[in-house]
Amino acid sequence: MADRLTAAAVEALRAAILDAGGNELYLLGTLDDDGRVNGLRVLARGNRRSVPALLQIPRPGEVVLHNHPGGRLAPSDADVHIAGALGQNGVGSYIVDNAVTAIHVVVEPHRPPTAVQIDRTDAIAWLAPGSAIAAHLDGYEHRTQQQRMLAGVAAAFNDDGTLTVEAGTGTGKSLAYLLPAVAWSLRNKERVLVSTHTINLQEQLVRKDLPFLGGLPGFACRTALVKGRGNYLCRRKASQIKAQPALLVEDEVQRELREVLAWAERTADGSLADLPVRPRPEVWEQVVSENDNCLRARCPFYGTCFFYTARRNAAQADIVVVNHHLLLADLALRDEVGSYSQNAILPPARRVIVDEAHHVEDVATSYFGLRAGYATIERPFSRLQSRRDPQKGVLRALVRALTTIDAAPPPAATAAARLIEARLVPRTESLLTDAEQCFSELFAGLEDLVGRAIEAGREEKLRVTDTVRTSAYWGDVERWLTRLGGALGDFAETFEAVFERLDQLDTDALPQQIVFLTTELRALQGRVAGAGLALLEFLRDDGGACRWFEARVRPRTGAALTLHAAPIDVGPLLRRALFEPFPTVVLTSATLTVDGRFDYLHDRLGLAGLEARERVQTLRVESPFDFDEQALLAVPSDLPDANEPGYEPATHTAIREVLQASRGGTFVLFTAYGALRRAVAALGPELTAAGLVVLQQGETNRHLLLERFVRTPGAVLFATDSFWEGVDVRGDALRCVVITRLPFRVPTEPIEQARVEAIAARGGNPFAEHALPQAVLKLKQGFGRLIRSRTDRGVVVLLDSRVARKPYGRVFLESLPPARRIVGRRSVVTAAVRRFFAGVRSGSPDP
């Protein structure tokens, strides 16, 4: 016992067992430097026969202890199972008697080698004047803020901590976290994951920052950008299409598909990013790599597979860059199987850096949610059999392949072909017709329920509340979805009779095309079954999830109804899958605090509920830019309230006056497309006549629109959500940002309603705890478009007088960078804006 537990741990364990009345306990033990259990905390309490074992909390190198009240220490089958699951993650398992005088070691804990820590003084020196970075980095600037962030990240690695760091614009945060990440990885031979939200940042890291560091002494590391599987072409599917194009693909798709297949012969990495023109979804899905449609090591193209080549490169990398969605997919799989030390979607890692962390909640909400509709069903059914040409699809192609194996096909092949013709082909068409009718009826019923027709170009969202569940419409929903969901499940079961015959065939002697088509048929069976389960899942009455209908009419595709569900609180999911099992997690962004505090973010992401709260550290690093010198924040206080009828005409007048002063080079940011369109209609002709170039979001893709804005003198871009962040325009091309109203989220969004109600139900203040923090973070993002370098100069004009008149306006203002401010009547504000731009043109900006 003395070799396994310290005397203090023995006494603490006895006290815990006594406190539990001698019943069975599970406790988590941490080891001291001698490998003995020193710290203890209770994980779960049970009775003499059972205890809810918590497998997700322990980390490698820790020990789970539990007592056997009867005194017999031999592990039961359940004990062995639990110990095995813990052992896969490097967690030990001990059993003691109630007196804590005897111990049985089931599994030894993994004792990782002593970590080579990052010296704080050395780390700061990496970014100091005279360093290798200073000598080789174009445009190097010494920034104490960057060094502070680097030191904080290094400490998080050294101390197995979770760090939330807000780094103002211009800090240089990517180098501040990459330097310690690379150093830690190389010194400890331990991979580090870096997750971002946007492709632009991923490309910056992989193409610029990491290659730069790799060229410096002591930082030469292997890196990999891991993309989702859907980004890669599957060579096996491409060969399958080439072999039977007339049977598998419609003529319209074939024409575009031929270009993709020609590209597949010359591409280096086989990913969508390498394609000169992105194909339509219905074309790409014919050749895309898919997890459930993969032969893995049995595939003849396994050695040259684009996807697995990328994964093999990632497995050898020290730094792996991913996006948030892929990170969550990996975490969800690891949480499900209980393994953090084996390959999953990503190679295993113990340290994670999450950049653009303000997006994590929204990405998690989407990832852990549900979305189902007619298109969810139509896609696999169209692969089974084309509606336009019933002679094309996997079913017909497989029948043809089975019946032409040789002059005398094996009986099992003939039987499989007959079953496909008799059972699968007829039901494929009829079930798709049933699905179409189901969603058409539910769409019409929704219009009746809301009392109006849904116009083209608009959408209607209806949350499933108690009122909806007691309506006649919900009875129709239950009847239709239960019937269709059950029918899809039954249809998926019908495939088994075909597979029984196919399994009787000698796989080694079969033509590859039959093996390929059988693999795809199994994948489509799973998707049909999954579509049925999604419909039934939507009907559940789960208090932890928000469910809603979404109906829209589009000019090209017509009416469509989709079913949605999303977790109301993603915090517990993230806490269990990310923050508890990973020793180090660094969250960073330029916009994480509200009124100088991280409370909102920590609450939404689950950090506030972390038991080991001492592991969580925070750091705020102000921007190195001189906002007092470089920027002016102007707020007209006499405009009508944003919810009053006269608000829009007044803002149009204010926008016109600001643009007269800035002479273009301006983003005008809206929170809704309708307001944007009305502003362009009201101001566009006049602005054009004055020599300005009016650009409007939606008239072309985002990249081309931004490119045109930058190279066009006098450009004014009217935009909404996607231009509030992730846009980096430096210099005089962007010298003014007009924000038309405070960016409160639409309170009618179902998930927002559900979250507001959940806060109110526990006695909280939904506005202060939810709506206000969200809007503050969004406003900070919009403000952040303006000043992107030390030489930038400009004005942010906020046309929402609530920030000046409402008590909560202080929170918005105090959360923004410390630019000079002018709050007053519109005439005074407009004059100050004119003086600022006049001063900029003369070389001395003056408000």
Please characterize this protein's 3D structure.
There is one protein chain. The chain has 847 residues and is of the alpha/beta class. The chain is 46% helix and 15% strand. It contains 31 helices and 23 strands. The chain has a 7-stranded parallel sheet with strand order 8-9-7-10-15-6-16, with helices on both faces. A 7-stranded parallel sheet has the order 19-20-18-21-22-17-23, sandwiched between helices.
Q: Low-confidence parts, pLDDT < 50 over ≥5 residues?
A: 47-53
- Approximately how much beta-strand content do the residues carry? 15-25%
Report the total helices.
31
Q: Quickly give the structural class.
A: alpha/beta
Radius of gyration equals 30 Å
Brief sketch in words of this structure:
With 847 residues, the protein is an alpha/beta fold.
Name the features.
15% strand, alpha/beta, 847 residues
Give the secondary structure arrangement, pairings included.
Elements: H1 7-19, E1 25-31, E2 37-45, E3 63-68, H2 77-87, E4 92-97, E5 103-107, H3 120-125, H4 132-136, H5 144-158, E6 162-167, H6 173-188, E7 192-196, H7 199-214, E8 223-225, H8 235-243, H9 245-248, H10 251-264, H11 281-284, H12 306-315, E9 319-323, H13 324-337, E10 351-354, H14 360-367, E11 370-373, H15 374-384, H16 394-403, H17 411-450, E12 459-463, H18 466-469, H19 472-502, H20 512-538, E13 545-554, E14 558-567, H21 571-579, E15 584-589, H22 599-605, E16 616-621, H23 627-630, E17 631-636, H24 647-662, E18 666-669, H25 673-689, E19 693-696, H26 702-711, E20 715-719, E21 736-739, H27 750-761, H28 766-783, E22 794-798, H29 802-805, H30 809-815, E23 820-824, H31 826-842
Parallel strand pairs: 3-4, 6-15, 6-16, 7-9, 7-10, 8-9, 10-15, 17-22, 17-23, 18-20, 18-21, 19-20, 21-22
Antiparallel strand pairs: 1-2, 1-3, 4-5, 11-14, 12-13, 13-14
